[in-house]
Design a protein that fits this description.
About 35% of the residues lie in helices and about 25% in strands. The chain is built from twelve helices and 13 strands. It has helices at about 40-50, 70-75, 95-100, 110-115, 130-145, 160-175, 190-195, 215, 235-245, 280-290, 305-320, 325-330, and strands spanning about 5-15, 15-25, 30-35, 55-60, 80, 150-155, 180-185, 200-205, 205-210, 225-230, 250-255, 255-260, 300. The strands form three sheets. The chain has a six-stranded mixed sheet with strand order 5-6-7-3-8-9, with helices on both faces. A four-stranded antiparallel sheet has the order 11-12-10-13, with helices on one face. Strands 2-1-4 form a three-stranded antiparallel sheet, covered by helices on one side. A hairpin with a 2-residue loop joins strand 8 and strand 9.
Length: about 325
C-alpha cells in the first residue's frame, strides 16, 4: 500500500505548466529521491505533498489523506524540511527543538537530536548566526522531532559541510530503517546514489526516468566503463592497443579519463568486432597499464555513475523534445 502517491499531478503558475501529469508512489521503509534540473518541478511536487500548494489537476495522497483538505489530520504524521527558513531568527537550536517537541505526543528527545545532528557546541547560538550547514542540520532535526511516518526533505544537504552530510545521511537511513517513507529532492547526485532506494528524474515537469540507482546506471547494457583521475595529457594510444579493438579512451577534461569497451552483436561472419570484456577485467587492464608506467591515479570508478546516467537521460530527453535539435538531426 503506497504511503505517498501522485496520480497525473499537474501544477500551473498562470499560463505556465510546472508539473505535467506526474505519477509515482512510495512505500514505508523506502527512500525516493527526486532529481532534475532547476525548474523541472521538484519543489512544486513536494509542496503539493506537504499541503502547501493545491494541484491544478490530479490526485495526491499521503497516508491516504488529501494534504490540503486533510492537512490538520496529516500534519502530525509528516516531517518537512524546507530549502530555507522556517525558524525564528533569534531561536537557538536547543530551544527550537524543545518548542517543536512540545507539539507532539511522543517526540524524539531534543538533547539526543542535538547530538545526532552535531549541534551541541552551538546549542545556544541564535539561528541567524548559525552557518548554512548548521541551519540545514537543525532543519532536518526539526523535521525528525515528531517521529514522522513520512519525511519530506527539500535539498537536505545543500550547503552542508562533509561532516554534516555524514550526519544527514545517517539520520535519513535511520528514519528509513524504522519504517518511515523518505522523499527528498537534491542536486547532489552522489548523495542520491548513496541514499536512494529509487530515483525519479523530472525534466520540464515530466517524469523521464524512474528506477533504482543500479537499474538506471546499468540501463544501456551496451558498454563496460572505467573512469579515473591521473596527470593530464597522458598518451592514450598505448592503452587502447593493450585493451583491444573497439575500445575508446578519452580525456574528458584535464586529468579525468574514461575508458569504454562497447560490446557489439556478432557480425554476419559470426566474428565479434569488439572484446567482450567485463568491467572488472577492464579495470584490471587499466590499473595494470598505469602501474607499469608508474602513473599515479585516483578516484578509479568501475561502471557508470548515477550522474552519468542522469545526464544521459536529460540529454536524450532534450534531443527528443527540442524541435531545433530534432530538425538539426534530420538535416
Amino acid at each position: 500500500m503506497p504511503v505517498v502517491r501522485c496520480d497525473d499531478l499537474v501544477v500551473r503558475y498562470g499560463p505556465r505548466t510546472a508539473v505535467d501529469r506526474v505519477s509515482f508512489a512510495a512505500g514505508r521503509g523506502e527512500v525516493l529521491c527526486i532529481l532534475g534540473p532547476n525548474g523541472a518541478g521538484k519543489t512544486s511536487t513536494v509542496e503539493c505533498l506537504e499541503g502547501y500548494r493545491r494541484p491544478a489537476a490530479g490526485v495526491v495522497r499521503v497516508l491516504g489523506l488529501d494534504p490540503v483538505a486533510d492537512h490538520g489530520s496529516l500534519v502530525s504524521h509528516i516531517g518537512v524540511m524546507l530549502q530555507r527558513g522556517g525558524v525564528y531568527p533569534m531561536l537557538p537550536p536547543r530551544r527550537a527543538l524543545r518548542l517543536f517537541a512540545s507539539y507532539y505526543d511522543n517526540p524524539e528527545d531534543p538533547e539526543i537530536l542535538l547530538d545526532l545532528v552535531r549541534l551541541r557546541p552551538v546549542a545556544r547560538t541564535p539561528w541567524r548566526r548559525l552557518s548554512g550547514g548548521e541551519q540545514a542540520r537543525l532543519s532536518l532535526a526539526l523535521a525528525l522531532v515528531g517521529r514522522p511516518d513520512v519525511l519530506l526533505l527539500d535539498e537536505p544537504t545543500a550547503g552542508v559541510d562533509p561532516e554534516g552530510r555524514l550526519a544527514v545521511r545517517e539520520l535519513i537511513r535511520a528514519a528509513r530503517d524504522r519504517g518511515a517513507c523518505v522523499l527528498l529532492t537534491t542536486h547532489e547526485l552522489n548523495e542520491a546514489e548513496r541514499l536512494a532506494d529509487r530515483v525519479l528524474v523530472l525534466a520540464r515537469g515530466s517524469v523521464v526516468a524512474e528506477g533504482s540507482p543500479a537499474s538506471l546506471m546499468g540501463e544501456p547494457g551496451t558498454s563496460r566503463e572505467v573512469a579515473f583521475g591521473a596527470p593530464p595529457g597522458l598518451d592514450l594510444e598505448p592503452l587502447r592497443s593493450v585493451i583491444g579493438r573497439g575500445v575508446t579512451v578519452t580525456e574528458e577534461e584535464p586529468g579525468r579519463y574514461r575508458v569504454e569497451a562497447p560490446v557489439f552483436p556478432e557480425a554476419a561472419t559470426g566474428e565479434t568486432v569488439a572484446p567482450d570484456i567485463t568491467s572488472g577485467a577492464l579495470a584490471a587492464a587499466v590499473t595494470s597499464w598505469l602501474a607499469e608506467r608508474d602513473v599515479a591515479f585516483r578516484d578509479l570508478r568501475v561502471g557508470r555513475s548515477l550522474e552519468d546516467a542522469y545526464l544521459d537521460v536529460l540529454r536524450s530527453h532534450d534531443e527528443a523534445t527540442d524541435p531545433y535539435l530534432d530538425g538539426r538531426r534530420r538535416r
